[in-house]
């Protein structure tokens, strides 16, 4: 792979309600006509996508990554990281970012990692024609409960009386990053469960109309391979590809330069193939 220098920048995109969403941009030195918008996983932020985005940029694809409203650097006034007033506003935010960016490119892809993959499927189901293809890394379909049994039991009461109550997840984030959320509001957790997870994800998958690549590690204990396989089977689009990576866990070899290269190289080949199919 030839190396192309790139420039990193931190940007914001203003939403229709005046809120500014934080974006990271890894701009290739040479202008590209192919872009990719990346969505981080549960409680994460755009900085966690640096490794794949640097690789994409070095190969001439123009990558952006966002911090969802309420996370990373996209905090709502008066609310802690991990809380947002309106979960469904996330869908509108993502669409407004896509609409703002994609006019500069011939081809525009979307990548979601873990829970971010379910956001991408949610988006594709509601806006079936604005993205040219979806890349889903380790989609969080079959996962362990994110909250304790006690918190799950009191969730209905919290949603009625104190939806902003912050709850701690049952497992710690794999990355020690101060921009990660360490706790989550009851209303955000309810939004995930009622909008993105399991049956909702499968329902959204039946409305995907654009080419889709799913990449899954067979040693993933956080998002089980069976979930990714079921999602692949449920996708209505005929142009779909499933890659099972031997020995890879939920992070898909992100800390192993040699092994992760096979994943990113395969992703780039898929992007190039599908970029050439549309003139």
Describe this structure in words.
The protein has 279 residues and is an alpha/beta fold. It has one domain: 3-Layer(aba) Sandwich (Rossmann fold). It is built from 8 helices and 10 strands. The strands form 2 sheets. Strands 1-2-4-3-5-6-9-10 form an 8-stranded mixed sheet, sandwiched between helices. A two-stranded antiparallel ribbon has the order 7-8. Helix 6 packs parallel to helix 7. The model has no long low-confidence stretch (mean pLDDT 94).
Break the fold down into its secondary structure elements and pairings:
Layout (H helix, E strand, L loop, with lengths): L5 E9 L5 E9 L5 E6 L10 H9 L3 E5 L22 H14 L4 E7 L1 H12 L6 E5 L11 H13 L4 E2 L16 E2 H10 L3 H7 L6 E6 L7 H10 L5 E6 L11 H20 L3
Parallel strand pairs: 3-4, 3-5, 5-6, 6-9, 9-10
Antiparallel strand pairs: 1-2, 2-4, 7-8
If helices are DSSP runs of H or I spanning 4 or more residues, what is the number of helices? 8
Question: How far is the N terminus from the C terminus?
Answer: 24 Å
Spatial strand arrangement across the major sheet: 1-2-4-3-5-6-9-10
3D shape: globular
Low-confidence stretches: none
Helix and strand pattern: EEEHEHEHEHEEHHEHEH
According to DSSP, the number of beta strands is 10
| CATH architecture group name | 3-Layer(aba) Sandwich
Helical residue percent?
A: 25-40%
Q: What portion of residues belong to β-strands? A: 15-25%
Number of discrete domains = 1
CA radius of gyration is: 18 Å
The named CATH superfamily: Alpha/Beta hydrolase fold, catalytic domain
Mean pLDDT: 94
Q: Mind summarizing the main beta sheet? A: 8 strands, mixed
The CATH topology turns out to be Rossmann fold
What class would the helix/strand composition place it in?
A: alpha/beta
CATH class: Alpha Beta
């Amino acid at each position: 792979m030839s190396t192309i220098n790139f420039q990193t920048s931190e940007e914001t995109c203003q939403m229709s309600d005046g809120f500014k969403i934080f974006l990271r941009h890894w701009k290739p030195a040479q202008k590209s006509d192919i872009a990719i918008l990346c969505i981080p996983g549960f409680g994460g932020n755009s900085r966690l996508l640096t490794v794949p985005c640097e690789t994409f940029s070095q190969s001439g694809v123009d990558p952006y990554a966002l911090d969802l409203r309420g996370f990373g650097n996209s905090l709502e006034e008066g609310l802690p990281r991990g809380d947002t007033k309106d979960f469904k506003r996330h869908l509108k935010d993502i669409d407004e970012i896509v609409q703002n960016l994609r006019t500069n490119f011939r081809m525009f892809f979307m990548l979601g990692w873990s829970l971010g993959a379910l956001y991408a499927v949610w988006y594709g189901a509601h806006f079936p024609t604005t993205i040219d293809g979806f890349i889903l890394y380790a989609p969080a379909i079959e996962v362990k409960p994110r909250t304790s049994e006690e918190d799950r039991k009191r969730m209905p009461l919290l949603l009625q009386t104190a939806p902003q109550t912050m709850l701690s997840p049952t497992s710690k984030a794999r990355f020690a990053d101060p921009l990660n959320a360490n706790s989550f509001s009851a209303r955000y957790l309810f939004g995930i469960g009622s909008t993105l997870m399991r049956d909702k994800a499968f329902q959204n998958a039946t409305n995907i109309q654009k080419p889709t690549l799913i990449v899954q590690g067979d040693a993933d204990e956080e998002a089980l391979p069976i979930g990714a396989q079921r999602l692949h089977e449920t996708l209505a689009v005929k142009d779909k590809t499933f890659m099972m990576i031997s020995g890879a866990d939920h992070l898909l070899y992100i800390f192993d330069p040699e092994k992760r290269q096979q994943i990113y190289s395969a992703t780039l080949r898929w992007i190039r193939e599908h970029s050439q199919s549309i003139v």
